[in-house]
Amino acid sequence: MTGHTTARQRLTAELLDALRTDGGVRVVTGEPGCGRTTFLDHAARLFREGPVRYVHADGADDLEEALRTAGPLLLCVDDADLWDSPSRAVLARTAARIRASTVRTALLMTVANHRPPPPELADLPLLRLGPLTPGDAAPLIRERAEGAVAPAVREELITAAEGNPALLLALVRRLSPVQLSGRRALPRPLVDAEVLADVAGDRLPDDPGGLLLTAAAAARATGEEDADAALVLRACRTTGKDLPDLLAHTEGRLRFRSTLLARAVYVTAPAEHRRAAHLALAEAATDPDALLPLLHRAWAVTAPAPSTAASLSSAATDPTSTAPPTLRRRALARAADLTPDEAERACHHLAAAEQALLAGQTSDALRLLDRARGRTAPASVRGGAELLRGAVLLADGPVEDARESFLLADLLPPPAAARATLGAADAAWSAGDPTACLSALAPTHTPPTLPLAEACVRVPQESGGQSPRRAMGVPPLGRSREWGRAGATAPRTERAAAVADPHRDHQDGMRAVLLARFDLAAAPLRRVVETGLQGTTPDPLLRAAAAALLLGDIPSARRAGARALAAARTSGSAALEPRALEYLAYAELRAGRHQLARTHAEEGLRTAERAGQRNTAAHHHAVLALAASIEGEADLVAEHAEAALSIARRHGLAQAATLAHWAAARADLGAGRPAEAAQRLGPLVRPGARRGHFAVWMLAAPCFVEAAASAGRPQYAAGVVEDFALWAACGADPQAPSQLLRCRALLAGPDTADELYLRALDRHDDTAGDFERARTELLYGKWLRRRRRLREARTRLEEARLGFERCGARLWAQQAAAELRAGGAAPSAAPATASGAGDLARLTPQQLRIARYVAAGATNREVALSLSVSTRTVDYHLRNVFATLGLRSRVELVRLVEQEEKTGARL
Fold it and tell me: What are φ and ψ of residue 788, in 5° steps?
């Protein structure tokens, strides 16, 4: 296999960078077909520091001579696990000498992972080649395909290959140009026994007792990488004392060392053997009526079996069952296979798609929805398919398309129509269209039952201009035919006395907020919070978190979000985890705890990408950009803001775009560039067609006022302050009252500014978070210094500096320190620390995180995955860490961090 993806090239560059800095040894491993040999060859071509020598088993004795070569040297050994034991012993001794030496010699080996590692090499550092990402697989398809490849075909090839390059290329070779272009149907199944046998080659061992096949069948049923060892051994009537090398037995689970070979074992086995394995697993189950044994029995059936399909569907849709969505999806898809009636089969496909969506399997859900939307499907099924398609697009697609799908499903009977109604509102909210959002939430619509999706968690709204409605872009009363009468636009107050209905309450509360009627919004939203917090399933808890954020009840939002996250994980609902983490991230930002917000967003970004939710990922990128703008990490702000904007532009995410622009502007302000910040923020916060998202722009208003005043253009901010006052008055943002007083102080004359700053500081005492208070202290200190009240200024500026340092806002702390020096005072010395900690204290917060990961043995790629950044960003920060600390290698960094841990100093 030739050609490499961008990710593999970055991984190779990272590996060579590590070998250049400290020399050493790396063992590259991965499953068959992952491209170990190609990776080794590519690394050899990129090594420029000295000669490269390939060593084979028959030349192991030459290793001793090679080590005597002067200057940098790269030794390459392919398939070291196939060497005989004496030769591997020579390799191990050579590796030990290289690791103990200061000579810049590197040893790069490859071994397969479908067997246990050779004992001689087991303790050497591993670099595991993971599966190709979809973004990496697409260029490989373009490179090898003859002619154009239809997008739908490309997506199916990527999904079928499961990230294995050799299998992906085998599938491309299997298809003709007309099939690749989408003009002719693809073969079914796409990955058959012939393809897998060709890729697996001679790596498949004999399986006389059927243990491998039974283990593969057990794993296939659950969709997991491992299986219950006791169940498999009972089905095979064996103790499993001597397991095949292809299997690993850990903590009661049997796992194939290679996912490719697990597929090959199952698919290449005769059909009657597969059915026998499933039947044996069903008979060995302790609860034969549970969903999993029923699924195994269903796979032992060869002809349509309506009764089996009915039993399987009933068990898969049982609300009391604890089966995860992945297992339910497989059971419902199998029920569809066994159902002769086309209408019932469409129903099963629709139900399977819903479970696939919950499991975070977006592509699979869309394929199942296509099967459910056939012409013979009942209208209710076709409408349900549009409802689910709207949910998929809302998380990963153009939100206007999502809205149209929801509208197509709006004529379904309740409660499905209610879900479509609120889904359409969510899509309009994400797109920044308040009129469409209000239209979807009209009182004539059916009460919604879908929890408020991603958009409503972000930020509640009310704002200014000449009226709150006009400021938000909502047509004034009397100009819109639909909303022409006040009695038709706001929730009826007498409903507060009615029996609580969380779905109706959420709809009424959200509509009242959009209409700037917070007096009518509070009661229904409070009921949503109280009812939701009594629940134990994700949906009501997510509703509660969203409603709490609309109310400005941050403690309840955090509590509901945390419970929703726990419930999503417990139920296996991978699609809901990114949303719960998003709620938590925004709640922490609203509370002024940006580092906690960053932690939730980093995890949320990883889960959103795994679940194929690019829109949700865009919001997590925006949170990370906002957090980085506080910490002064300009490169991270740019990286995450651009990532958010890239998705937002393609999918119409006005809300994520506004947040990303705000983050970039705040980074300018923190770096002492107020004019640039004001130029970025002006269009976002001032009235006009370019104003940012109606639920976000007011949060950026204090930044704009500060930037405009600092840039000497306070006249441009007066109208924005009056608009912001309307937002602050609604009580939904705990930070807004103190921010409003600070904004007024920035624009006030000398007679009133002093009092306004003091009042702002008093209001800060009522809210958590150091950052906003430190900003007020800094601005007040600047104001005092310019009026030669130096003693008072020093007190305020020192408080600001300490506050910024407490929350990791390094650039802002430097601003306060510069103001102190300008006033003739030096910043207070930092407390004395143990040896080494002073050096580490010179690092930025992100550099400290990376230093800790690297010191723990993580590769740059592993650090990038943990922090949800690119490897290029990690490379950049690591070089700065070495330069700042005067280090030459990772070994020295490990020693410095270990010294810090021993002395008890804080990293």
Answer: 60, 20
Nearest-angstrom CA–CA distance, 374 and 378: 9
User: 3-state DSSP: the chain helix, strand, coil percent, rounded to 5?
Assistant: 65, 5, 30
Phi and psi (nearest 5°) for 441?
-95, 15
pLDDT at 451 over 60: no
Pairing of strands 226-228, 126-128: unpaired
Contact 744, 476 (CB under 8 A): no
Rounded Cα–Cα distance for residues 794 and 785 (Å) = 8
Residue whose tokens read 């398939």: 79
- Name the DSSP letter for residue 247: E
First-to-last alpha carbon distance for the chain, in angstroms, is: 45
- pLDDT interval class at 905 (50, 70, 90): very low
Mean pLDDT, the chain, whole residue set: 85
171-187 tens-digit pLDDT = 999 999 999 999 999 99
Mapping DSSP to helix (H, G, I), strand (E, B) and coil, where does residue 54 land?
Answer: strand
Nearest residue to 218 (alpha-carbon basis) of 209, 205, 231 = 231
Give residues with Cβ within 8 angstroms of 679, minimum separation 6. none
> Per CATH, which fold does 837-903 belong to?
Arc Repressor Mutant, subunit A (1.10.10)
Query: For the chain, what are the domain ranges?
Result: 6-128, 134-191, 208-302, 451-612, 837-903
Q: Enter the DSSP assignment of 673.
A: -
- Nearest CA to 25 out of 94, 72, 114, 82 is that of 94
Fold agreement (451-612, 837-903) = no
> What is the sign of the dihedral through the CA atoms of 670, 671, 677 and 680?
negative
Q: What is the pLDDT of residue 871?
A: 73
Model pTM above 0.85: no
For residue 228, give the 3-state DSSP assignment.
strand
Give, in words, the CATH class of 451-612: mainly alpha
Please report, for the chain, how many H helices and E strands are present, in that order: 46, 8
Tokens of 621: 């990128």
The predicted pLDDT at position 824 comes to: 83
Asked if 120 and 92 touch (Cβ cutoff 8 Å), the reply is yes
Q: What is the pLDDT of residue 807?
A: 86
Q: Is 269 helix (H, G, I), strand (E, B) or coil?
A: coil
Pick the CATH number of 6-128 from 3.40.50.620, 3.30.70.920, 3.40.50.300, 3.40.50.970: 3.40.50.300
Question: 641-700 pLDDT, tens per residue?
Answer: 999 999 999 999 999 999 999 999 999 999 999 999 999 999 999 988 889 998 899 999
Measured in degrees and rounded to the nearest 5, phi and psi for residue 652 equal 70, 35
